[in-house]
Amino acid sequence: xxxxxxxxxxxxxxxxxxxxxxxxxxxxxxxxxxxxxxxxxxxxxxxxxxxxxxxxxxxxxxxxxxxxxxxxxxxxxxxxxxxxxxxxxxxxxxxxxxxxxxxxxxxxxxxxxxxxxxxxxxxxxxxxxxxxxxxxxxxxxxxxxxxxxxxxxxxxxxxxxxxxxxxxxxxxxxxxxxxxxxxxxxxxxxxxxxxxxxxxxxxxxxxxxxxxxxxxxxxxxxxxxxxxxxxxxxxxxxxxxxxxxxxxxxxxxxxxxxxxxxxxxxxx
Amino acid sequence: xxxxxxxxxxxxxxxxxxxxxxxxxxxxxxxxxxxxxxxxxxxxxxxxxxxxxxxxxxxxxxxxxxxxxxxxxxxxxxxxxxxxxxxxxxxxxxxxxxxxxxxxxxxxxxxxxxxxxxxxxxxxxxxxxxxxxxxxxxxxxxxxxxxxxxxxxxxxxxxxxxxxxxxxxxxxxxxxxxxxxxxxxxxxxxxxxxxxxxxxxxxxxxxxxxxxxxxxxxxxxxxxxxxxxxxxxxxxxxxxxxxxxxxxxxxxxxxxxxxxxxxxxxxxxxxxxxxxxxxxxxxxxxxxxxxxxxxxxxxxxxxxxxxxxxxxxxxxxxxxxxxxxxxxxxxxxxxxxxxxxxxxxxxxxxxxxxxxxxxxxxxxxxxxxxxxxxxxxxxxxxxxxxxxxxxxxxxxxxxxxxxxxxxxxxxxxxxxxxxxxxxxxxxxxxxxxxxxxxxxx
Lengths: 268, 441
Fold this sequence. Notes:
A: six-stranded mixed beta sheet; globular
């Protein structure tokens, strides 16, 4: 990669300058699916209390890259560092051990189960006898939902009966409840209406204020400019560049996405 | 519960007192499962219609007794098929696997143990060692098929279609095609008529079950109150308890009303060298096989609703990707589900061969279709994620009632199968319409 991939290229003051070690460092990640290099030597980092946006066309490799961090795929080469230590993530379970939570584009909920069962899926509260404690799970769900989405009422119905926003709040509640420190959101608002999108945006801001690091994937450049601290643009599996949002315009980002280069940088 | 509960109970408890909730209908207050009511209703209609057509011969204690022991084998397997279908698989091999398990058990108790281990025929350990061998056979073969499906990703349809051809003929080779019998007498007690609790113990079992049911309902209610959830009014709880207790004790009363024919009793007395007292009567009571079914139903329901395994089975059926991303090992889960199925098949093999008092090669033929039909009539969705254990058992009961009812009325055998086939398709159609109405998927 070239100089543009250096995140410290433009020395604006930011939390990273304080010397704190990054929450996440992806170093030279590569993965190929039968001949196609889906992610080709990408390096990214993420600091606590920061939102980093990932932009690019469909098939640019954003989701693939992020699935490597969340344990769904295994990289062919490259390293993942969490809190300054080398991490080995081979499955979603491993990722959870590093407090990495993922909220997927496809709303990864089991439609036939209720909100509480989904929230605790894979990490059920059990009684001393080893049985799932539904009542306690429901009580906990009620508590966290009261905080995240006070209008949420349909606790004992299958989540298929919920609206897109309500379903997304179940997914977000899952991340928040289990004290995620690193949150990956893959198009969290793609299936949502205007009001619900605003709700998710507020949530992202709140989580950021709590010191979580968030990777956000979206196609909506304007939304990204508003929510993110930095944006990284990918094209054909490679990183085009990472920019602080105050240093670039929406048009700059668009040309990075489309042409694979930053016009300003080239002019400079 | 998380599967098919469709009774609207989304009132935001804790926010306003329950007594201010809008007036709810009588049935709503009882919080009964509408689907369960529908199936019980269908079953009652079938029974009443056949009772009229047979001039009251259908709903006699004797026929109800027979009906229940005829249902057991298919019903036990149907509970396992629920898990298989819920995880979006299918098992076509259960009838053939039943033959293999039955063959192993028959050979164990008549040849292998007596000839190789030197245990004499009639030895007390024979039936139990045989059953153990059968259960292991079923579980191992089931797990193997599950491994082929889960880890080698061969479609379950293909694996078990192959199994259907393989296991029946493995059974044939084990016995060299011979019918093996008579089976051990203790073993035969699991078949139905040859092993029953008798009147007194049936009442004790019934009362015990009633007490357990009431306690379970009560502790669930206390648990809900403990977390500040809304609960139904006490009178509604009492009505539900009364219905359950009434059903349990009514069932026991009916089975106890079926008396052992006096010539059978006289023969038993004669065998013991005693004289039968004048006017002596005795009842069959609850067959062991029915107790076995009830035990399987309870265990499977607890697994489905109260354990992580059950939660993962339903989650995987609802959305396999979500389950995988939640850290659930869906491959291993597939192995477990098929192993459970295989074990249940072996239990059914005990009941089926004990009922026939011997093992024959065609045992369990076409059972795969009956089992799948029972699960599906009972509301298990082939698209996965939805199904209940009680539904599958009711489905088996409804099918068996139809079949034996038609036989009693004298309907031609080909027509019987046509009716059962039609009912299967119609049941699924009704289920689809019902789900659309209540706003599921």
